[in-house]
Write a structure and sequence with these properties.
single chain, 277 residues, alpha+beta, 2,3-Dihydroxybiphenyl 1,2-Dioxygenase, domain 1, 3 domains, eight-stranded mixed β-sheet, four-stranded mixed β-sheet, 12 strands, 27% helix, 30% strand
Length: 277
C-alpha cells in the first residue's frame, strides 16, 4: 500500500487534518521522514494508520465512537482564560471568545470539532451580577471546579417541536423548548431553542438544541484543527441508561465503570486530550 494512498484514506476516515497530522507525526514506517516526534500512537490511531480502518467507510469507523446527533460538548471551568490555556496546551489549538449568556451568569470560548460539532469552554461571567434562578446551580458548580471537567453535552434532533411530541408519546418528562441567544463579539446574534430532560441521568444524557435558521452554527467559523475521536458515558449499571438512550435515538456509546462519567477524547496538532466529568 502506497503511503500517499494510506494518508488520503486516513484523512477521509477521520475527517480532520488534525488527526492526520497526529498520525503522521508517529514512528510508523510509512510516515514521511520529515515528520517525526516521540509521542506514542494510540491503538485506535495505529489501526487506522496500518489499514484496519483504512479499508472501511468513514461512517462505519466513527459510528460507534461519537453519537451522530452530538452538537457540542461543554467543558466547565472556574476561569475562562485558564480553561482556554488548558485546552490549547494539550491540543495545540486555542479557542476564541464566543460571548456571554445574558441572565445565565456565564461566558464561553469555542473551537470547532468538525462539521456541526464544537467544544464549548464555559465559565462564570464575573460581570454578571444577576443570574436567573434556573441557571444559578450551574454557575455555582462552575465556581467550585478546581480543574476543567466535562459538565454536559448537547444533541441536535432537528425539529425540536416534533422531538418534544415524540417525548410526550414516550412519557419522557422535559422542560422547554426554551429560547436562548448570545451576541457574538462581531455583534451578530445567535439564536436557538433548547429542551432539557427532567431526568438526564445526572448529566449523562444531553440537552437538546435547535439553532435558528438565520444563525451561523458555531462550528462554522470557530478555530479549526481539533477533532473528536470518541465520546460516551460510563456507568456501573448500563441497562437503564441504554434503554433511555435508545428511546432518544442517541446511539450513545455506554461502557461499564465504577463511577458514572462522561468521557471524551479530542485530538489536535499536539496530540490527544482525554476529558471526563
Amino acid at each position: 500500500m502506497h503511503a500517499s494512498y494510506l494518508e488520503d484514506r486516513v484523512a477521509l476516515i477521520c475527517g480532520s487534518n488534525a488527526i492526520l497530522a497526529h498520525l503522521l507525526k508517529t514512528r510508523y514506517p510509512l510516515v514521511p521522514r520529515f515528520m517525526k516526534i516521540d509521542n506514542p500512537i494510540s491503538r485506535r490511531l495505529f489501526l487506522a494508520l496500518t489499514g484496519g480502518a483504512a479499508l472501511a467507510p468513514a461512517a462505519a469507523w466513527t459510528a460507534s465512537d461519537v453519537p451522530p446527533l452530538l452538537d457540542h460538548i461543554l467543558l466547565g471551568c472556574s476561569d475562562l482564560d485558564s480553561g482556554v490555556d488548558f485546552v490549547a496546551q494539550h491540543t495545540g489549538v486555542r479557542a476564541v471568545f464566543g460571548g456571554v449568556h445574558p441572565g445565565r451568569g456565564t461566558r464561553n470560548a469555542l473551537l470547532s470539532l468538525g462539521a456541526r460539532s464544537y467544544l464549548e469552554i464555559i465559565a462564570p461571567d464575573p460581570k454578571q451580577d444577576r443570574v436567573e434562578q434556573f441557571a444559578q446551580k450551574q454557575v455555582e458548580h462552575l465556581k467550585q471546579l478546581a480543574s476543567p471537567h466535562l459538565i454536559g453535552w448537547a444533541a441536535h434532533p432537528a425539529d425540536l417541536e416534533k422531538f418534544a411530541a415524540r417525548l410526550r408519546e414516550a412519557n419522557i418528562a422535559f422542560d422547554g423548548p426554551r429560547p436562548g441567544s448570545r451576541q457574538r463579539p462581531d455583534g451578530k446574534l445567535l439564536k436557538w431553542k433548547t429542551l432539557n430532560l427532567k431526568d438526564d441521568k445526572n448529566g449523562l444524557l444531553p440537552f437538546f438544541i435547535e439553532w435558528s435558521a438565520d444563525s451561523l452554527h458555531p462550528s462554522a467559523d470557530a478555530p479549526k484543527g481539533c477533532s473528536l475521536l470518541s465520546f460516551g458515558a460510563a456507568i456501573p449499571e448500563t441497562e437503564d441508561l441504554s434503554r433511555v438512550a435508545a428511546v432518544l435515538q442517541l446511539n450513545l456509546p455506554i461502557s461499564v465503570s465504577n463511577k458514572a462519567a462522561l468521557q471524551a477524547t479530542l485530538v489536535g496538532p499536539n496530540g490527544e486530550l482525554k476529558l471526563s466529568s
